[in-house]
Design goal:
Distance between the termini: 45 Å
Radius of gyration: 21 Å
Number of strands: 8
Number of helices: 4
Oligomer: single chain
Shape: globular
């Protein structure tokens, strides 16, 4: 059986090999130096941070966006470009342009049971929510229906569309409040809330998105 120092050396070597292919060579070098020249306790601590660093900085990490909701807090949303590439591309383009800043949630259904919160209609910036045109606005660019196997669980994002036209999705989207598996395959699931899930039941009709920002994005 290998002793602790031999096991630690083998583990350190494996981690350093992984980091040599890291996108950020300076950061990787700092971590490798810290691992190789430190005590066992500190080395183990630094090794424990490597998965998080790889997830945060790796170009393979899924893109994430933050959504600040007035008087509610912040959501962090992970997008799924492999499962819905065109939908995610369109969504990210709108986020970067500031399209969603100031848009309100115009439909929230959480009684008698949790269901969905819908937003993304630019008309909500200027029109009262009881205007008959609310729910019809968009960016003017449609995206094709991208059926996938992502389940509609609590926090999943789905693209709003006309029930009669699968390819009518645009800027409007919904966030599931609770699991809604009956929606699987019927709408394009393209992301999921990974931080701030506790805020979803608190969202009310009329709540405003202060801003949406891209946190990280995959490279082409």
């Amino acid at each position: 059986m290998e002793d602790e120092s031999e096991c630690g050396h083998a583990e350190t070597t494996a981690i350093m090999t992984t980091l040599r292919g890291f996108k950020f060579p300076l950061l990787a070098a700092i971590v490798m130096i810290a691992i190789s020249g430190s005590s066992i306790i500190f080395r183990d601590f630094m090794i424990s941070l490597v998965p998080a660093l790889l997830l945060l900085f790796s170009p393979q990490a899924n893109p994430r966006v933050s959504m600040e909701i007035e008087n509610r807090g912040k959501l962090v949303i992970e997008l799924f470009p492999k499962e819905a590439p065109k939908t995610v591309e369109h969504f990210l383009d709108l986020v970067k342009k500031g399209f969603y800043n100031g848009v309100r949630f115009h439909r929230v259904e959480n009684k008698p049971r949790p269901f969905i919160a819908v937003t993304g209609d630019p008309l909500t910036k200027t029109l009262p929510l009881d205007d008959e045109r609310i729910g019809t606005g968009g960016s003017g660019k449609k995206v094709p229906f991208e059926k996938n196997n992502v389940p509609f669980l609590n926090g999943t994002l789905g693209l709003v569309r006309d029930e009669k036209d699968e390819n009518s999705g645009d800027s409007q989207f919904f966030i599931c409040i609770g699991n809604q598996r009956f929606l699987d395959g019927r709408y394009v699931a393209f992301g999921r809330v990974v931080e701030g899930l506790e805020l979803l039941p608190k969202i009310q009709r009329g709540d405003k998105i202060v801003r949406m920002t891209v946190i990280n994005q995959m490279e082409d």
